[in-house]
Amino acid sequence: MGELNMEDMPLPSLFEQSRKIHLAATESAVDQDTVRRGIEGLGKCENMISTLGLFSANETKEDISTSNLKYILVPFYLAELMEKVSADDRIPILKASQEKLKEFMSFCEAMELLPKGELETSVPGGSNQMVDRRARKIARFKRQKAAESKLLEIKERKERRGRSTKAAALSTPVEAGEEEMVDDDSEEEREAWLTTISLAICKALDLLEMLQKEEEMLSAIKEKQSKEGEKEFSRAILDERTKTAETWHRNAATRARYTKPAQPITCATFAQDVLEGRAYVSDAHEHKHQPLIFGPASLVNGSLTSERDRIAAQVFQPGHRMPTMSIEEAGLKEMQMMQKFQERTAKFMEEANSAWYKERKQPGPVEDEDEDDDAAQEKARALDDWKDENPRGAGNKKLTPCG
Asked: Strand, helix or coil at 344?
């Protein structure tokens, strides 16, 4: 959208240019410069309307001419454009937009354009019962849908009439001296602008409600921040902590090449202290967890002086056996057992590779082997001779019927 020369522009042209900016900002996202140009143009429209005195306090909608009805929408367009301005502190923008909306609705009420009872929903302290508010919102939604349908119908009617007029002009030649017939659509234009104003009133009431809630939330957040101060961690602090942790890990990995490995950390709390720099790995840490003690509070960690106290202490004891050590202690004991096993295995390997173990396993003299072989051969021969003399099954012949 090009630059607007608003200095010498008449009111109708200035209003149309500003209305186009408002329509573009409503239907799609536009840059902030365009929004500010639209606000500037609508501000000049307000000044020109006030200077020309187009509206009077003792007038109603019936007294306003059709050509001036559209200028009633200037405060509403200005409020919607002001709400789209981006700024660090949004509360002043919300307040300025609400003022314009209230000004627009007050003028519509004076012109008898605002339905009765609508302002009660937006004024704090009014009769804002939940049922009434819901009923008014439903009625407002129906009016908004009806106004949109009516505007669409008027637009289609104008387009059809324009096409018919164009077709008639092409088919019927105009004779010399014949006057052109001009359609008098002032009533239709008046109906269209009144419907547009009704639609704007519905949107203005919803927008005012939304802006009030947003202002309340932002004010509460601002008040909370002023009381508690800035307690949230900024991105710089988080990056610094991350960088410190990475540097610690990098340095620890470098030192691990040349130093003796430290004892493994089995306590999560101590490990967190080491990571955040509150402790060192070389520090001694106790992480023994005593089993839970059940019983009355007066007997916990106390001495049982009588049989009555001993029985009272056993009342709330669990029905299962409690652990005698923590997970960390069991892990340390298992590591110690593994270290002993590795030491014993290394000792056995050293003995197996020693000269004494090899000499112990050396075979004896050759003569002893020969003697053992002769004895085995003689025993085998005697067994063969006995098998020849006693064939298999020979002792069972008497058990057979024919034996």
From this structure: helix
